Amino acid sequence: MSDVLDIGGAAKAFDPLWTEILDVGRAGTGGYRRYAWSDPDLTLREWFRGCAAARSMEVEEDRNGNLWAWWLPRGWVGDPKGAFVTGSHLDSVPDGGAFDGPLGIVSAFTAVDLLRVRGVEPAVPIAVVAFSDEEGARFGVACIGSQLSTGVLDPGRALGLRDIDGITLAEALTRAGRNPAQLGPDPALADRVGVFVELHIEQGRALDLVDHPLALASSIWPHGRWEFDFTGEANHAGATRLVDRRDPMLAFAAAVHTARTEAAALQAVATFGKVLVSPNGTNAIPSRVRAWLDARAADQPTLEALVARITALAHDHTRAEGTALTVTPESITPIVEFPDGPRNRLARALSHLGELPVIPTAAGHDAGILSEIVPTAMLFVRNPTGVSHSPAEHAESIDCHRGAAALADVMTAWVTQSST
Ligand SMILES: [Zn+2]
Fold first, then answer.
1. pLDDT in tens, 59-102
2. Which of 69, 57, 81, 87 is nearest to 192 (CA)?
């Protein structure tokens, strides 16, 4: 593959950009803590503006905090329409890897550089985009920026979301110098975006297993988050007889096991990865255990069956323990089938690479949210560890360069050829 992609050109543009952000928001663990509207996020937003300015691309921050860097065709008058848009997100999960999100943005600016070197004159606008708060690590809802812009997420609900310190999104936006009152759907989005192509590190080992550096996306599994709120009675861990206890930790523990066994039975995945215990004392029986279930499956009925089963069994346990349970859906994202049209155009633009694997993903993406209203496609870059949302997430430099060079080929084809 190395002889048909401009890997050298990509490396020259990619590496300096990558190095610039390598230390931003990096914790002692080696992982990243780039939460939405935190200082690292604001630093990365300034970096994005700098990248755009260095390329004479005009930056616009839309009403939801998503950043757009525009390259308009020579002589273009008026608002951008039908643009080739590519990018991803800058925020991370707690102790996330370096690649999830930023790889797509660094690759996008690299692709722009390669087009400039090639002397490409785009016939349609090009934009590099950074969507706000994709991971949902701070306020509990993923893809806040793209969900607001597409009208999927109600702005009133978004503004009231709170982080772990009780700070609302509205307060966080105000502190960051933004106006929370302007949040809401972007009616111009459908006109502006001709296609959104998100390049992303793969979050599994499918590509490593077939020994291929790049793939196109077929679909995103339906997935969601549910809050399980177990309540009981706080009491002394020593003085309270077992028979007198109303300990919500027991039903929670059973739910963790149920999630695993039921997911395995349905070839799905289910995870309790976040827990808040009150009062959280070593010598105290908890009064309350709040836990968040993340569940994903290949199709909607399987996902619904999985969550219904975990919920029903958790209720059985709470009844048996004399405790109580409330289950609240926090966000549910239906299956996304990426359309054939854009994927086929990408495949044609990359036909010099042979046949690319086409794979589904169980991870959510802004591309999935945008696919509600605009054509979308995704390009995956191999992650040999298969690990994601962890510092162990990895992509080899050569594969990053291949991905960025492939994105440049896709961009070139899209902005210079008619769609027929
Ligand atoms: Zn991501």
1. 999 999 999 999 999 999 999 999 999 999 999 999 999 999 99
2. 81
Distance CA 122, CA 126 (A): 8
Q: Checking DSSP bridges between strand 269-278 and strand 67-71, what pairing results, if any? A: unpaired
pTM of the model: 0.85
- CA dihedral 265→266→268→273, nearest 10 degrees, is -50
Report how far apart, in Å, the C-alpha atoms of 59 and of each of 55, 113, 133, 302 are.
Answer: 11, 17, 18, 42
Distance (Å) from CA 389 to ligand 1 centroid = 9
Ligand 1 centroid, distance to 166 Cα (angstroms) = 25
Answer positive or negative: Cα dihedral of 250, 252, 257, 258: positive
Residue 209 and residue 350 in contact, taking contact as beta carbons nearer than 8 Å: no
Span from the CA of 249 to the centroid of ligand 1 (angstroms): 32
101 CA from centroid of ligand 1 (Å): 4
User: What 3-state DSSP class applies to 311?
Assistant: helix
The sign of the dihedral angle between the CA atoms of 323, 329, 330, 332 is positive
